Amino acid sequence: MLRRLSLLVIVLSLGACAHYPVNEKLSELDPDGGYRFKNLNNEDNTDSLFVILTFSGGGTRAAAFSYGVMEQLKATTIMVNGQPKRLLDEVDVISSVSGGSFTAAYFGLFGDALFTEFEDEFLYRNVQGALIRRVLLNPFNWFRLASPSYDRIDLAADYYDKTIYQKQRYSQLIESRRRPFVILNATDIGTGARFEFTQNQFDWLYSDLSNYSVARAVAASSAFPVLLSPMRVHNYENPLTNGGEHDPKFKGEPKWLKPALKDADRVDTRYYRAREITSYTRDPDRPYIHLMDGGLADNIGLRGPLWAMRSTDSPWSVVNRMNNEEIDTLLVISVDAKTANDSNINEKKNAPGLLKVFGVVATTPMANYSSDTVHDFHAAFDQWKKDQRELEAIGEDVHMVDYYDVHVGFEEVTDPELRDRVSTLPTSFKLKRGEVDALREAANDALTNSATFKEFVEAMQ
Question: What is the value of pTM for the model shown?
Answer without folding.
Answer: 0.90
